[in-house]
Amino acid sequence: MASFRQVAKRLVLGPPVRSDRMGETLLPKRLALPVFASDPLSSVTYATQEILLILSLGGLAVLHLAPWVGLGVVLLLAVVVASYRQVVHAYPSGGGSYEVAARNLSRNSSLVVAAALMVDYVMTVAVSVAAGVDNLVSAVPALYPSRVWVAVGVVVLLVAVNLRGARESGRAFSVPTYLFVASMGLTVVVGLVQAAVGHPPVAESAGWGIRPEQTDLTGIALLFLLLRAFASGCTALAGVEAISNGVPAFRRPKERNAGRTMLIMGGLAIGLFSGVTALAVVAGVRVAENPCDLIGFPGDCRSSGQRTVIAQLAAAVFGDGGVMFYVVQAAAALILVLAANTAFNGFPMLGSLLAQRRYLPRQLHTRGDRLAHSNGVIVLGVVSAVLIASFGGSVTALIQLYIVGVFASFTLCQLGMVRHWNHELRRGEGDRGRVHRARLINAVGAVLTATVLCVVLATKFTHGAYLVVLAIPLLFLLMRGIHRHYRQVRRELEPESGELPSPSRVHAVVLVSAVHKPTLRALAFARATRPDTLTALTVEVDESDTHLLRSEWERLGIDFPLEVVESPYREITRPLVHRIKELRRSGPRDLVCVYIPNYVVGHWWEGLLHNQSALRLTWRLRFEPGVVVVSVPWQLDSSHRRDVDREHHPPGHVRRGLSR
Predict the structure, then answer these.
(1) Is 91 helix (H, G, I), strand (E, B) or coil?
(2) Of 163-177, 404-418, 423-437, 593-607, where does mean pLDDT reach its minimum?
(3) What are the TM regions of this chain, as residue ranges (predicted)?
(4) Which of its termini does the chain have fewer beta carbons within 10 Å around, N or C?
(5) What's the confidence (pLDDT) of residue 192?
(6) Rounded Cα–Cα distance for residues 448 and 75 (Å)
(7) Domains plus CATH for the chain?
């Protein structure tokens, strides 16, 4: 009968998938778009809002500059999308920015890109989920006090869905993504048509004033405010590179399908962002970092949040409380939550690639039951949930940590692509005109993204970006350290020329706690190996117990000597280790084999009922050179009953208790 754990696992993950069915998990374009493009599409819901939030620091006088800031973001987005299409076609094996930097720049540059991307993926999950919950709260204000718990619960749900595999998550997320594109596109079109015919939509905040934090902005101060607003609006570029990282997940022809998907994603993101920004200006939307700075804000500004830009636009276009208002809010909340799915696809793939090259633990390279990189999915979920809880689920606080890593990886990737095209030109292969055009696109992208990176660092550093600036070098050093460890281990384990020397003598030691069937089996196994010496060893913790053990030993006529190690302080592990060390010191080339009987039980709680001293001893002896520990199992009846269902369980599900 299947255990509760196995039943629960199958309900969440579904049945395991054979390795030879990997091709069935590949994504067609209609599913790849929601899987990889939900992040840049979802940024439409908060990129415009972030621009208005920063401009509101200067009061109503500078809000009219929002369209120009938005235009700068649109131009940058178009250049970056075009640049990453070059990456997709040049490196269809996946890896994106990391692969480009690894092949064309230095190893250290590639690790900086990898660290920046990992930080970006974590921030994508945290910001997207927090923003999605904010939109949900805009429709259901009663959830405001519980928004952090709601956000953490959403992360757990995303982890569960992604553990089922990329194709399953693509099916689950395709409807919400397309619903958002349709509902948001309808909002923009209807709103702009209303404005064109002379009845522009009016936001609920259009009549409010803003108490500026900075007044009389001119010259350098105004320029700095505009640059800060531009840096915040550049969150619209988050996730653009995800398709280049996940090209192997596409159906064949992979690079062509990935390139077309990126083009569709770029067009949708530019169109929706431009429309939302224009409509927000037309409708007179007012937002502020602190609701108490909004003059005319209804209710208690200290205990209730303000509506998002998307919520205000939906209410202005379709009417507050109407069916379409709730459709738009539901779609916005879902796309923001599902935007985290971009990271849940990109992070595990990047982690797998780094683990394969020994820069991260090897466990991140293995695939789970559903052919997903399960360990990477779980790590991303845990770190993101902790980050959301640490910042109280505040999008305004989390957004300050965002896009530093994005533009660091963008810049190094574009520089790497320029060098890639230079190599192509030197080889003289292919269409030189096409290569020159591709190099120009990537060169312009490198200049623009490097400029934006400097702007982001200058404007966001003191607002929280310094945490990311610290995190990237720490991850870089961690990956270097892991790689150094694996290299050292490989060097130590590399076989030398010639045969390995055999041990001079083999000493077999059987640990005895009682005279029972497991002990007799261990003695029989030890004798079957024909060691040079064989010793049965027990520790005297209680004199009466030892006397009974000797009597039973003699009664059964066991023809092996029983050696008793005294332990005045009632310890077991230390006296045994000391005695085994003495045997080991009898000859530098001697080998000591320690046989430890143990029980095999069928239930986890049975293992808790047996003494754990053998486990501690096994762990301790692992560090002794010239010592081999042999576990001799004895299957109890409960393990035999569990064995009936073996075909329904993965190998290794039987738990072991240790005998005493």
Answers:
(1) coil
(2) 163-177
(3) 51-84, 111-132, 144-163, 175-197, 217-240, 261-285, 323-350, 371-391, 397-418, 439-458, 464-482
(4) N
(5) 93
(6) 10
(7) 27-485 (1.20.1740.10), 506-648 (3.40.50)
Residue type, 328: V
Measured CA to CA, the distance from residue 160 to residue 88 in angstroms comes to: 29
- CA distance to 402, 574, 609, 613, 633, per residue, from 657 (Å): 48, 21, 8, 11, 10
User: Can you give the length of the chain in residues?
Assistant: 660
Residues paired with 599 in a beta bridge: 634, 657
| Residue 659: pLDDT over 50 | no
| pTM assigned to the model | 0.70
Pick the more confident residue, 112 or 606. Answer: 112
Query: Is 599 strand, coil or helix?
Result: strand
The total of other beta-carbon atoms located within 10 Å of residue 548's CB is 13
pLDDT in tens, 426-470: 887 667 888 888 899 889 988 988 988 888 888 777 777 788 888
The mean pLDDT of the chain is 81
SS3 state at 345 = helix
- Give the separation between CA 243 and CA 28, rounded to whole angstroms: 13
Distances (CA, A) of 570 to 253, 513, 616, 658: 69, 14, 15, 19
pLDDT at 573: 84
**pLDDT at residue 324 tops 80:** yes
Q: What's the one-letter identity of residue 237? A: L
Q: What is the DSSP letter of 234?
A: G
Compute and round to an integer the Cα radius of gyration of the chain. Answer: 32
- Give the model's pLDDT for residue 303: 64
| Helix axes 29-42 and 323-356, enclosed angle (nearest 10) | 100
Cα atoms in the Cβ-side hemisphere of radius 13 Å centred on 404: 27
pLDDT value at position 452? 85
Count CA within 13 A, CB hemisphere, residue 566: 2
Q: Which alpha helices (DSSP H) does 246-304 contain, by range?
A: 254-283
Element at 30 (helix H, strand E): helix 29-42
Helix %, strand %, coil % for the chain, to 5? 70, 5, 25
**Could you tell me if 657 and 599 are in contact, meaning their C-beta atoms sit under 8 angstroms apart?**
yes
User: Which letter does DSSP use for residue 626 in this model?
Assistant: T
Q: How far is Cα 434 from Cα 440, in angstroms, rounded to an integer?
A: 10
**Distance between CA atoms of residues 455 and 328, nearest Å:** 33
